[in-house]
Amino acid sequence: MEMTIKEVDTVFVALNIARTADNPWAKVKSPPDLLKVSMTHIVESMKKHGISRVLTVSAWGAGDSYREANWMFRFLINKTNVGIAYKGHEEQEKVLKNSGLNWTAVRPVGLTNSQASKPTRVSIGGSKKLKMAISRKDVARFMLETLDDKAYFQDAPSISND
User: Fold this and answer.
1) Which domains does the chain have, with CATH numbers?
2) How buried is residue 115: exposed, middle or buried, by Cβ count under 10 Å (0-12/13-18/19+)?
3) How far is CA 144 from CA 81, 91, 128, 129, in A?
4) CA-CA-CA-CA torsion for 128, 132, 135, 139, nearest 10 degrees?
5) What angle do CA 40, 139, 153 make, to 5 degrees?
6) Considering the entire predicted model, what is its pTM?
7) Is 104 helix (H, G, I), strand (E, B) or coil?
8) How far apart are CA 40 and CA 93, in angstroms?
9) CA gap 91, 84 in Å, rounded
10) How far, rounded to the nearest angstrom, does the alpha carbon of residue 100 sit from its chain's CA centroid?
11) CA angle at residue 14 from 130 to 28, to 5 degrees?
12) What spatial distance separates the first Cα and last Cα of the chain, rounded to whole Å?
């Protein structure tokens, strides 16, 4: 970890809990606390090296965005092994909130592998109704575009394609 973030300005994190298959009931093969433990180590290393900016991929429906999620997302969170990942995202967000760093936890809706870039819809605290999908490419673009935007520091914007 130390060598990975040495002499950088910003840290981008895109970790998630792995399951044995895409099926939401598939067995989880990652440690359930992977996101919390990883973020704790990342924050410690960042502080040691004087790095203050971190952006992470979280999930729409994690934390206070749970109330924004539709019934299908809430069902998956509550009744399947997808919920283990959501708990992990909530825990990593708590680590960030207590870190004293300039963090942003980006909460995308359902991810796709589309290569076509589309505009991004941003919701802060449920301010906009989101669509159900966004490409991984557009999540990465959003994170790069908001890197220096102080409006997103210490915040968790939810995003979808427009």
Assistant:
1) 2-161 (3.40.50.720)
2) exposed
3) 30, 24, 22, 23
4) 30
5) 50
6) 0.94
7) strand
8) 10
9) 11
10) 18
11) 90
12) 36
pLDDT in tens, 34-63: 999 999 999 999 999 999 999 999 999 999
Q: Give the H/E segment covering residue 102.
A: strand 102-108
Mean pLDDT value across the chain:
95
Phi (first) and psi of residue 71, to 5 degrees: -60, -35
- Residue 141's contacts (CB-CB under 8 Å, 6 or more residues apart) are 117, 120
Rounded to an integer, what distance in angstroms lies between the CA atom of residue 105 and that of residue 103? Answer: 7
| Residue 17 identity (one-letter amino acid) | I
Number of residues that make up the chain: 162
Phi, psi at 126, each rounded to 5°: 80, 20
Compute the distance between CA of residue 122 and CA of residue 124 in angstroms, rounded to an integer. Answer: 7
